[in-house]
Amino acid sequence: MRSMSSAVRRLLLVAAVVILALYVITAAITRPVNGDTQTYKADFTDAFGLHKNADVRIRGVQVGKVVDISLQRSGVARVEFTVLNGEKLTDTDQLAIRFQNLVGQRYLSITKGGRNTAAGAAQGTTATGAGGAAGAPLDPGKVIPASETTGSFDITALFNGMRPILTGADPAVFNQFATHMLDLIQGEHGVGIGDVLTDVEKLTNFATDKRALIRVIVNNLGVISESLQGRSEMITSLMKNMEMLFDTLEVNLELLKGAFGEGARVFPPTAEILTHTLDLTLGGHDDVSTRLMDVIPDPKNLANTLEVVPTLLTTLNTSMDQLGLDRNCSRGKVELPALGDVLLAGGRLTLCKA
Length: 354
Known about the structure:
354 residues; alpha/beta; 3 domains; 9 helices; 10 strands; 49% helix
């Protein structure tokens, strides 16, 4: 009887531990928001990957939770969510479903003043303030239409059609490309178009046909842009850059080949002529600087020596007068260049012809 009672107690203890563990795990997953909240509703063209209890974030900080997701007769997904009272929505805030990780988890992102910023960018102006001008408070009873939100998209669509073109590609290259694309589209972690183009260059190293790979990527970007209804300016800019690069190479490829072939024929004789010209003007392949350093290893000593020259000549003239020597040139004088006056500090010097 005692053993039965002991077994029951152990079983109850194990059950209590399991229940406690489940509670901790559930709390960690749901992560309830502390504080009073306001409930809103918004429609999205696509809510793929967004689930109940998903986070609502502003600048990466959790401010609410997704309460419910339902499909409307109009074909849009209606998302009901909460936001802390201190972060209530305004009519200038932008809502978007974003990737939380490459596994596919999503969260609802709120960009304060995001609609003002987007409108300013479209008109070539900039909004003032950290997040643009503050808008009017949004009525919680009003459903935010899908035309004012950005829905979800499938990042795997970016890789459609690549398998036949790529051989032995490193999975790490794919993951980095996908991560950078997500960051670029979502405007996170400072990723720019240059980072994505670098990843594309790495992918082309595994491609059997590089031009076909670039064309597939551009087409897939078009599919993603269409699913976002053209609301990602970064995708549009990236597509333009890649299309410009692709079209330029494709259209002018034969011209480039001809230019390179003509250059290979013309450049060697030209280089040889330039080499001979340098030989004539510089005396072969002499290193002028090296030769000057050999003759005058210390320019400071040379300057000190030249400073003594005027005094030396003055002393010599005085000695000649004392000895009664004639200082007139019997065969005429040599005219000194202007450099002589500089070196002699303006002193008078007579140089006789030999």
